Amino acid sequence: MKLRLVAALVAAAMLSACGLNSVPTAEETAKAKWAEVQNQYQRRADLTGNLVATVKAAGAQEKAILVEVTQARAAATQVRVSDADLTDPAKIAAFDRAQNAVTLNLQRLQEAYPELKSQANYATLLTQLEGTENRISIARRDYNEAVQSYNTTIRTFPDAIGAKIFYGAKPMAPFQATTPGADTAPKADFGNGN
């Protein structure tokens, strides 16, 4: 009787240390963080359309760039990454490229129309875009931290045992910049020789 009780306690202790709870917890955390990344991109897509419409009313000269922003936003909403795709770096990269096209067009909008900076609606657009890009950056950082935690959990003892035996866990792909030169800070050139 005592031997069975000791054996049961030892078995319970061993199983509790094999990732039975930590692996799915880490995985769900990473998935939730990815959902927040998508949420912030959706927020940008929703917000940008409304704000761009407001700025568009300020003058016809910005029509071409606003059309490009709208088309990039529409194209970016077509690229989807499901929970199952989080282990595929190519799908994460495709998602990033589509989102970067929006970012580049928004930057062109900011650079191409400095005369609009004095208008209150353009100032609001810039403020909202900056805030949105900051939210996206934070969401991507939080996702990468969750992926790092998950990947560490499934690769370290004793959780690695449960990760492989019970869940067949695979490492998730972190969000990485795919734009050439993204690792180099851009230089601000205001055309005044400084």
Description:
This protein has 194 residues and is an all-alpha fold. It has a domain at 31-141: de novo design (two linked rop proteins), CATH 1.20.1440. The chain is built from 6 helices and no strands. The chain has helices spanning 2-16, 22-56, 63-78, 89-112, 120-155, 159-167. Helix 2 (22-56) packs antiparallel against helix 3 (63-78), helix 2 (22-56) runs antiparallel to helix 5 and helix 3 (63-78) runs antiparallel to helix 4 (89-112).
What's the structural blueprint in terms of helices and strands?
Layout: H1 2-16, H2 22-56, H3 63-78, H4 89-112, H5 120-155, H6 159-167
Helix pairs in contact: 2-3, 2-5, 3-4
The CATH superfamily of one domain is identified as: LemA-like domain
Instruction: Give the averaged pLDDT, no decimals.
Output: 76
Distance between the termini: 85 Å
**Number of distinct helices:** 6
Largest sheet: none
Global Rg: 23 Å
Classify the secondary structure makeup into a structural class: mainly alpha
Q: What CATH architecture of one domain would you give?
A: Up-down Bundle
Q: Helix amount, in percent?
A: 55-70%
At the first level of CATH, the class of one domain is Mainly Alpha
From the 3D structure, determine the CATH topology of one domain. Answer: de novo design (two linked rop proteins)
